Structure formats: C-alpha cells, structure tokens
C-alpha cells in the first residue's frame, strides 16, 4: 500500500506536511492517511510532467507499448491484492473488486496495442513539387481527475491512452479512494516508466479546488480529462477557456431502462440486475428510471422484486455479500431522501426502502436494495441521479410516449431497452438521445467500445480507437521545392 504522492519519480509527502484519513465505508474505520496536497504540490507535479514530456514523446511507440504491457501484466499479477484494496476503501464486494482490476487492465493492454497505430496521412498535393502530410502528435501534459466509484478502472482508462500517445500525466484521485490509484502508479513505475512521466497527488475534498485550479491556470497543461458531476465539469470547461485546453468530460447520467410488451421479461430482469446493482448502483451508467409497458408491467415488477429482495447486503469481508456499503453518509442520505420523497408523492415500496444496520451490515452506510412502483415525473428521482440501489418503475403505454419520456432529461450518457421487434429496435436506438445504448443488453462496457455521452453528460470518448484521438493533435506539414 502506497500512502504518499508520486512526483518526479519520488514518493513524497505534501509540502505542507498535512494528511487526511481514508476510511473503510463498511464501518468508517481508518484504513490509512495520505498527503493533503495543495498548490505547491500541484505545481511541482506539472513541473515534473513538463520536464519529462520531450523525452517521453521521443520514446519509440513500440517501447512505450512494451512498458504499458508490463504494467498490464503487473496489474493482473496483483489482481487479488488490488481487488481487496478496492473493496476496503470503496466498499464493493470482493468479486467486483477483482473484476474491476481485470477491467482496468484491459484498457492498459488495449492502449498498449493502439500506441503503435498512431498513423499519419499523406495528402494528395494540388500542385507539382509539394509533399503534404498530416502528422498525429501528443497534446502535451494531461491532467486526469478521477472519481471514487471505480478507482482502478477510471485512472487506467485515462492514463493508459495518455501514455500511449506520448503525453505525460498529472493525476488527482478522488479523496475517498486514493489508495488503489497510488498502488497502480507504483506498478506503472515498476513497469519502467521514467521519472516525471506519471505524477499523482492526493487532496482532501476541501483542498481539491486548490490543486485543480493550479492545473487549470497553467498553460503547460494542455488537456483535462475528468469523470464526475456535471456542475464540476462545467466549472472545468469555463476555467480552462483562458488557456484553451482540450477537454474530455464524462459527466452525470439519468439513464432510462425501457421494457416493451414484446420483450423477453426474464432477460430484461437479468439485464437490469446487471446494469443497476453493480457497485451497489453507484455507477454513472446505472439505470435511474425504469419504464415497463402496461402489458408486462406487473409481471416484470413481480420477477424483479423477487430478484432484488434476495440480494445479500454486507461488507466486502464476507464472501457472500452482493451489495456493499455506500461510499459515505452523504450518499446514504441522498438515497433515503429520494425514496422518502417518492413515497410521499405516491410511490409504493415493493421491497427494500430502508437503511440497513444489523449484525452483518453493522456500519452506518448500508441501504437495502429497493423497488418502487407508481413512480412519476414529480419525484426527485426523476430529475436527479440517485446513485444507489433503488429502482423506480414507471408505467407507460406507447413507444412514442416512452421515447419522449426517456429523452426528457438534460443528460444523455447511457440508455437501455428490451424488445424482440427488430423494426422497433432500430427506431428506438435511433431516437434515444444518448451516447451509449444497450439493446437487449445490460452489461455494455468494454475497452474496445467508445464510452461517453451527449448533452450535459459531456463530450469526448474513452476506450476504443476514438479514445486515443482525444490525446493527440494533428500537425500539417507542407514541403515544397520537390520538382
């Protein structure tokens, strides 16, 4: 376990000497203390990344790829230990923690292979005697700001393409889950990354603006990549405008999940379980509004409630836990507020609908997996992302009605629907205003697929060949006098 910043090849404390505690959400016990960094540390990280950039971009792509492949191998070597660390600081079940490491490593492997495919173009010249080229080059220093819900996958999904492209990196992990990110950086160093190429600083919630504001103001930072809330994403966009940084923003969601009368109901229930209850519902692509057509509504709810009511709630230390603690008390309070508001406005609790504290789930941060019926647009959970194990079910009658409702949100990250009508499948897929669509599928993430949203869910893509383009710019070279 690493508990220090990594700047210019050294593990170090914050310049101020301050620290903050990382807590286990299962019982709010202290796991470790990490540096509480400020502006001085943020500048030192940029200084190191800027100094290392010229040398790193000159490293042949095949050698950069080899280092990334070694990093991938080390992550898989330590999969069990890293997965346990994720579960300890984030709360997800052990099986999910181990699976996240494999998922994170898949991005490192993918971009290791993509590093050798950053090709340019030869453009046909309009006149004799010229040679015209379009060359792809790394943008420069990249600042990566990552969330707490997938502390391994999110940092790998941002750092791997940056390094593959020839960029250097300064990173700030979420204050709730910095230990996994620090451990991955340690493995990247073990894989052979030169000093200054990858730098990471930790900061508490209170001091995070101090760190990030330094990176926003520094013209040497040429790109910001961020996953988090839409209000913070808008702030980053505004404050990066003076230096015209490139931005990748993966922001909030309010995903619809639609089940039509002609759907395979059992498949739809299993798809919803996979999409909704991973990480206890704390993912940006979790279905937040579930729509069931009138003809299958009652049957769908009955089968869903049976599956949800059987989920085991408990700490990651228990092998049979399927829903762990929420990340902190603020998260549980928001979930409870959404459910209470829905009930006050006419919703019915079919299962769950309460905080959990018993001999197994003994800590303060547990909430029972919940199914609500009678959900309406008047409720908070229609407008806000609950980010927890709560399924509100809305009844609908027609295809046009539900597509309009699904799109009635400023967000557009993910959407899901189930149907066996091939014509409807393409009509609805085309009509949904979303960057990602799951058609008869609840598990949609893959390193080879472009991940990102539209509208106020942000812009830019992570993963796939498109994910590398966000870390490159194009230089046009025109050579004359060749005839």
From TrEMBL:
EC numbers on record: 1.2.1.16
Active site as annotated: 250
Residue ranges constituting the Aldehyde dehydrogenase domain according to the UniProt record: 11-477
Source organism superkingdom: Bacteria
Matching Gene3D superfamilies: Aldehyde Dehydrogenase, Chain A, domain 1, Aldehyde Dehydrogenase, Chain A, domain 2
Pfam family, one: Aldedh
Coiled coil ranges: none
UniProt keyword rRNA-binding, yes or no: no
Keyword terms: Oxidoreductase
Molecular function per GO: succinate-semialdehyde dehydrogenase (NAD+) activity
GO terms under biological process: gamma-aminobutyric acid catabolic process
PANTHER family listed in its UniProt record: SUCCINATE-SEMIALDEHYDE DEHYDROGENASE, MITOCHONDRIAL
Family, as annotated: Belongs to the aldehyde dehydrogenase family.
Protein name: Succinate-semialdehyde dehydrogenase (NADP(+))
């Amino acid at each position: 376990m690493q508990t220090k910043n990594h700047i210019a090849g050294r593990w170090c404390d914050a310049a101020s000497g301050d620290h903050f505690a990382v807590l286990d959400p299962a019982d709010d016990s202290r796991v470790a203390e990490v540096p509480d960094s400020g502006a001085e540390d943020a500048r030192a990280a940029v200084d190191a990344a800027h100094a290392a950039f010229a040398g790193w971009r000159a490293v042949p792509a095949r050698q950069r790829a080899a280092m990334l492949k070694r990093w991938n191998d080390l992550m898989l070597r330590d999969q069990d230990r890293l997965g346990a660390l994720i579960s300890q600081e984030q709360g997800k079940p052990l099986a999910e923690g181990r699976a996240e490491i494999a998922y994170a490593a898949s991005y490192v492997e993918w971009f290791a292979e993509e590093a050798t495919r950053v090709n340019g173009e030869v453009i046909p010249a309009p006149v004799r005697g010229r040679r015209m080229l379009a060359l792809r080059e790394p943008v420069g220093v990249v600042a990566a700001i990552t969330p707490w819900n997938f502390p391994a996958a999110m940092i790998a999904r941002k750092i791997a393409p940056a390094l593959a492209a020839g960029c250097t990196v300064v990173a700030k992990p979420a204050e709730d889950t910095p230990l996994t990110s620090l451990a991955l950086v340690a493995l990247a160093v073990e894989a052979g990354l030169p000093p200054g190429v990858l730098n990471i600083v930790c900061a508490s919630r209170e001091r995070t603006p101090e760190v990030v504001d330094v990176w926003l103001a520094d013209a040497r930072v040429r790109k910001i990549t961020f996953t988090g809330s839409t209000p913070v994403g808008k702030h980053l966009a505004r404050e990066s405008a003076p230096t015209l940084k490139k931005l990748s923003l993966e922001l909030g969601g309010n995903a619809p999940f639609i089940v039509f009368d002609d759907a395979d109901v059992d498949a739809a229930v299993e798809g919803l379980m996979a999409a909704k209850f991973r990480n206890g519902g704390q993912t940006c692509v979790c279905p937040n509004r579930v729509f069931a057509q009138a003809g299958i509504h009652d049957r769908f709810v009955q089968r869903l409630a049976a599956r949800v009511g059987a989920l085991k709630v408990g700490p990651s230390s228990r092998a049979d836990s399927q829903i762990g603690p929420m990340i902190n008390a603020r998260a549980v309070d928001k979930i409870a507020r959404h459910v209470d508001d829905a009930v006050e406005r006419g919703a019915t609790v079919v299962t769950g609908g309460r905080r959990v504290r018993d001999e197994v789930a003994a800590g303060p941060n547990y909430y029972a997996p919940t199914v609500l019926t009678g959900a309406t647009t008047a409720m908070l959970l229609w407008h806000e992302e609950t980010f927890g194990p709560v399924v509100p079910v809305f009844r609908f009658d027609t295809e046009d009605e539900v597509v309009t409702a699904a799109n009635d949100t400023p967000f557009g990250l993910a959407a899901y629907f189930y149907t066996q009508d091939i014509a409807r499948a393409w009509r609805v897929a085309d009509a949904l205003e979303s960057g990602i669509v799951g058609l008869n599928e609840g598990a949609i993430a893959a390193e080879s697929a472009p991940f990102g949203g539209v509208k106020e869910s942000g812009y830019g893509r992570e993963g796939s060949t498109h994910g590398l383009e966000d870390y490159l710019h194009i230089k046009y070279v025109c050579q004359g006098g060749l005839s």
